[in-house]
Amino acid sequence: MPVKRKGSEAGKSAPEVSSNDLGLPLDQVRTLIDLLEERGLEEFELERAGLRIRIKRRGAPGAPPPVFESYISASPNSTPSAATARSPEAAAGAGVELPPGLEDAHLIKSPIVGTFYASSRPDAPPLVRLGDLVEVGQVLCIIEAMKLMNEIEADAAGEIVRIYVENGQAVEYGEPLFAILPGKKQ
Amino acid sequence: MFRKILIANRGEIALRIICACKELGIKTVAVYSEADRYSLHVRFADEAICIGPPPASESYLNIPHIISAAEVTGADAVHPGYGFLAESASFAEVCETSGISFIGPRPEIIRLMGEKDRARAEMARLGVPVLPGSDGVLRTVEEARAVARQVGYPVMIKAAAGGGGRGMRVVMKDSELPALLGTAQTEARQVFGTPDVYIEKYLPRPRHIEFQILGDLHGQVAHLGERECSVQRRHQKLVEESPSPAVTEEVRQELGNKVVEAMRAIGYSNAGTIEFLLDEEAGRFYFIEMNTRVQVEHPVTEMVTGLDIVKKQILLAAGERLDSLVTPGLRLRGHALECRIVAEDPDTFRPSAGRITAFHMPGGTGVRVDSAVYAEAVIPPYYDSLIAKLITHGKNREEALARMARSLEMFVVEGISTSIPILRRILADPDFQAGHYDTHFMERFTRQQVTV
After folding, report:
1. Residue B163 confidence (pLDDT)
2. Which of A95, A98, B40, B209 is 20 to 30 A from B172 via CA?
3. B334-349 burial by CB neighbour count: b if 16+ within 10 A, else e?
4. Can you name the CATH fold of B4-103?
5. B295 or A78: whose pLDDT is higher?
6. Contacts of A92 in chain B (CB under 8 A)
7. pLDDT digits (tens, 9 = 90+) for B258-284
8. Please, which pLDDT band fits residue B20 given cuts at 50, 70 and 90?
9. Where exactly are the structural domains of chain B?
């Protein structure tokens, strides 16, 4: 059952429903459509014995241009030697999985290209640890770019539920750094 | 020699540079925007770094992100390709101060040639013919009339701050001058905020001819002959060829040597192109501008010289000597043509972005395709519309033309509109086939198409 997340910018037009199984109860289809709307999914496909259902959202007129994606797979050529070598699939937040059960978590992504530091000085403790509660505006890490130390702040309050990168690792634009689960801050 | 090169570009030229690096045994770093995640330059580079969102201003033109990407990957050189930052003197400077080699000329040379009036004055000083005209801004009708008479009609009045055809007026005879000067000044003030205009000789039917040059870091410069790029629409080149049907071997060597002398005098290094207008009747060439980078149409020169210009750029930037890379007394071999296949509507000429559903490239003897697209690729709307360059080489122009005609016929792109149909019609045009064309060819050609 492939579920493709193609970005949620497309317009708020009514989903188009196509099913080859007329026996499917209408309320189940409605539930699916609601789910699609709710999660900002553009396309949903379900296939099992004797049934195939595909729900696709049509871009509204005047909506932003379609999100561009294509089917070349991850770079098999890339030699994962340097810390920076990684497949483009994993890069820049494409297809990043939020921890199970924490789908509501908020991702902090790198706004710049550079080197990730968990602490403000080499001998200092990390600015944040897994399980820490953070506030909006709190410095989470440092990214060094062109000899400048850039403080990366939290833009949501909550609990740090995942740290995606290691100290000293190179990060690219849009790469996930932290997942924050909102609403846990007292 | 460099160990790792970062390619600060996208599309076919990024892939072209990756090819050269692979053949030289140099590692590559691709940078890409979020719109280019699935592009071939990302796939074929050894490493890839996302540098920003789709708009070029936030990714391919983002100097801090690109320099930072070079630093975190340990790249020791940057190849800028063409477009984007290729002719940014400040980018070349930042590379230099960050200890990264910029594959191109020195920043001060990029800056000099980027300022069109300074470049023109410098070339004139070095004995390269420039279009005769006024030395500076003209204010009164009397001043303008004196220059126009001296240069000879027709003349062109141009806005000093201008570009893109705005504020330009062609004056055919003396009596028209006062009125047209006034109009040009008014338009210049409205469009550019200053009424400053100057006068240049107007060539009614010029051909666009450019010389490819290479220079090393030790004061040596050589030319690789010329290319003709007169088939243009709104200053966008559509078809290029080398050699030009309008240039003889004597003229090639004479003008080529003048160009080489001038480039040696300014200390030019790496690849560059010097563009001229040719007044065919008078047999005179006039310098218009210099491009301090690799050109889109460099493959036609590669085909007739047998030299890999991108590889030479890398070797020259690493300090190799020109005489070890280019044999003196180089002769052009056969004839080469290039057609630019762009994603655009053949009637409205609007860019045609979208998904390519079927893609077939022609092949066979004497055919080369430089492209970074594939079946199922998506052409994003954010960048230029070039999707492929089709290049053919033959023992003479006739053979190169026949190869181009059959290759265009065998080139299949479905899902988006392309310039292939119009290119096929150009190739079938008797004037083009005979080599009788100039920069107004497309205007006449589109008019004819309407009447047919």
Report:
1. 62
2. B209
3. bbbbbbbbbbbeeeeb
4. Rossmann fold (3.40.50)
5. B295
6. 34, 37, 50
7. 999 999 999 999 999 999 999 999 999
8. very high
9. 4-103, 132-201, 207-451
Q: Which residue in A4, A70, A79, A81 has the most chain B C-beta atoms within 10 A of its own C-beta, making it the best mutation to test that interface?
A: A70
State the nearest Cα–Cα gap between B36 and chain A, in angstroms: 9
For residue A171, which residues of chain B lie inside 8 Å, CB to CB?
72
Nearest CA in chain A to B380: A68
pLDDT tens column, B42-57: 999 999 999 999 999 9
Q: Which residues contact A186 (CB under 8 A, 6 or more apart)?
A: A133
| Residues in chain A within 8 Å Cβ distance of B44 | 75, 77
Domain B132-201 fold: Dna Ligase; domain 1 (3.30.1490)
Q: Which of B10, B106, B293, B368 is catalytic?
A: B293
CATH of domain B207-451: 3.30.470.20
Q: How far is B388 from chain A (nearest CA, A)?
A: 18
Task: Please list, residue by residue across A4-20, b when 16 or more beta carbons sit within 10 angstroms of its beta carbon and e when fewer do.
Answer: eebeeebeeeebeeeee
pLDDT score for A57: 64
A78/B46 Cβ within 8 A: yes
Average pLDDT over residues B342-362: 90
Q: Which amino acid is at B141?
A: V
Q: For chain A, which residues score pLDDT lower than 50? A: 1-22, 59-93, 184-186
Mean of pLDDT values over B299-321: 98
> Is B252 a residue of the active site?
no
pLDDT value of position B191 = 84
A-chain residue closest to B74, CA distance = A82
- Assign B113 to helix, strand or coil: helix
Q: How far is B374 from chain A (nearest CA, A)?
A: 9
The dihedrals phi and psi of A29, each to the nearest 5 degrees, come to: -65, -40
Residues in contact with B176: Cβ distance below 8 Å, sequence separation at least 6, in sequence order: none
The pTM of the full predicted model, rounded to 2 decimals, is 0.80
